[in-house]
Specification:
Layout lengths: L7 E6 L3 H11 L3 E6 L2 H11 L3 E5 L7 H9 L9 E5 L4 H9 L4 E4 L4 H12 L2
Parallel strand pairs: 1-2, 1-3, 3-4, 4-5
Length: 126
């Protein structure tokens, strides 16, 4: 596989491992997926591994997705990595909170897998 053919690295940050299993099964031919189970644990992982895109759950114990996103976007080494928030929170104020935190996109669960793949492809250019 040449450099230009490498799969985009996607980090899923979600406290539900099952969500990672579903996405990995559905997208592994197109993307390289990695997993982190909390906002806190993903921060060092992002700096070390520098994924091409982050799929970030909003509702997690401890550091929630909004605060995690804010920290990612306020860190020089990670601020340019696209962050797509994945959430069941549908209210306009929740969506606005996501964009205020710096997310690049706000995707409401349950989402269409083809639409999610299309959005990811838009941001990673592959």
């Amino acid at each position: 596989m040449t450099l230009s053919q490498q799969k985009a690295k996607i980090l899923l940050v979600d406290d539900e491992y099952f969500n990672f299993e579903v996405l990995k099964h559905a997208m592994s031919e197109r993307f390289e997926l990695d997993y982190s189970n909390s906002g806190q644990s993903c921060l060092g992982q992002i700096v070390m591994e520098h994924p091409d895109l982050i799929l970030l759950d909003v509702c997690m114990p401890g550091l929630d997705g909004y605060d995690t996103c804010r920290m990612i976007k306020n860190t020089p080494e990670t601020k340019n990595i696209p962050v797509l928030l994945l959430t069941g929170l549908e209210a306009e104020r929740d969506k606005q909170a996501g964009f205020d935190a710096g997310c690049d996109d706000y995707i409401i669960k349950p989402y269409s897998l083809p639409l999610l793949i299309e959005k990811i492809s838009h941001y990673v250019g592959r």
